[in-house]
Write a structure and sequence with these properties.
Blueprint (H helix, E strand, L loop, with lengths): L14 E5 L5 H9 L4 E2 L8 H4 L11 H5 L6 H6 L9 E5 L2 H4 L3 H8 L4 E6 L2 H14 L8 H6 L1 H6 L14 H9 L7 E5 H6 L1 H12 L18 E2 L2 H12 L8 H12 E2 L6 H22 L28
Parallel strand pairs: 1-3, 1-4, 2-3, 4-5
Antiparallel strand pairs: 6-7
Helix pairs in contact: 13-14
């Protein structure tokens, strides 16, 4: 009942996109935000439920820049939604929510009736995409993906940023079970990146239906956020960041400067070697099998062909995880 909710719940979101990172969350956030009954703040990833009342203690290159963006106090978090007026749904999308232990409990304490959305991608492809993204963002100092994977155990111990924990973040079944321990299944909606790339409007409308708003609304899906690319040189990327942060760089127009850097330093993505892909199959196979049972959909093709077959017309694209 409403009386059981915290007295600040009306100022907080009632919907969260939990992740996973590099699985289409930015695009889904933009498509949902277009709906007239959905309010999404401009700040996509406040990560409040990761850092509530805590010091930002993440290690690794570039993390101090990321840490400045995190919201740690309730008042600041509530202000993100101050401009919401008539919208029935208020939401945000912080990709650290799905994989970070303790977040489900903190969300439940503040907004126990929240509608939760997870969008999941082939964990092997997601890991490689995260590696490339971390390189572009100056968070990954190792140029070779296989070597970065070998460094992951020490990164977990030393509390590196989640984006650089390439296999840890891809253990979806274990992460969803943490939410099922505190939320009823009907409050958690799971989508697959495969469906999203094939039928973004259909998936967005499925999400609208789940959220209880007009599901005939068609968002503009002509642009996709955060398309992947690779950098030619990590050192050149770091140098460019240093220049942009200098007194000279601050005088340069940021848009043209980024365009020049992309032209010089970005290249097309090289595919994973078959041997490394096989190694990653062995890492993820148990969790993928568990996920198939949990969401009642066979996702083991991720480990074989790499792509999940489409669902038939008239079938819902999302599912509620259930043991």
């Amino acid at each position: 009942m409403q009386a059981d909710l915290p007295n600040h719940a009306s100022k907080l979101p009632n919907m969260l996109i939990l992740g996973a990172a590099k699985s289409g969350t930015s695009s889904l956030y933009r498509y949902l935000a277009q709906h007239p009954d959905v309010f999404m703040p401009r700040f996509k990833e406040p990560h409040f439920f990761v850092w509530e009342g805590r010091e930002y203690d993440i290690e690794g290159p570039g993390v101090e820049r990321v840490g400045k963006e995190m919201i740690k106090d309730l008042d600041s978090y509530q202000k993100l939604f101050a401009q919401a007026t008539h919208e029935r749904i208020r939401g945000e999308a912080s990709t650290g929510y799905l994989h970070t232990p303790g977040v489900a409990e903190r969300i439940h304490r503040h907004i126990p009736r929240a509608s939760l959305i997870a969008i999941l991608r082939n964990p092997i492809d997601r890991a490689y995409s995260a590696f490339l993204h971390a390189q572009r963002g100056g968070l990954e100092p190792i140029a070779d993906f296989e070597q970065a994977l070998r460094a992951e155990p020490s990164r977990v111990t030393n509390r590196w940023i989640g984006l650089t924990l390439y296999t840890t973040v891809g253990m979806y079944a274990a992460q969803l079970r943490r939410y099922l321990a505190v939320f009823p299944s009907e409050q958690i909606r799971v989508y697959l990146f495969d469906d999203f790339t094939r039928e973004p409007v259909r998936l967005a409308q499925d999400a609208f239906h789940y959220l209880g708003v007009n599901d005939t609304f068609e968002p503009d899906v002509s642009t996709r956020a955060n398309r992947g690319s690779a950098v030619r040189s990590v050192r050149l990327r770091s140098f460019a960041r240093a220049v942009r942060g200098s007194s000279i760089g601050r005088r340069l127009p940021s848009g043209p400067a980024r365009t020049v850097l992309r032209t010089i330093n970005e290249r097309s993505v090289r595919p994973l070697s078959p041997m490394l892909r096989r190694d990653l199959v062995s890492v993820f196979e148990n969790d993928v099998a568990d996920l198939s049972r949990l969401i009642d959909r066979d996702v083991t093709p991720w480990l074989e062909s790499g792509v999940i077959p489409p669902v038939p017309p008239g079938t819902t694209l999302g599912s509620h995880p259930c043991d």
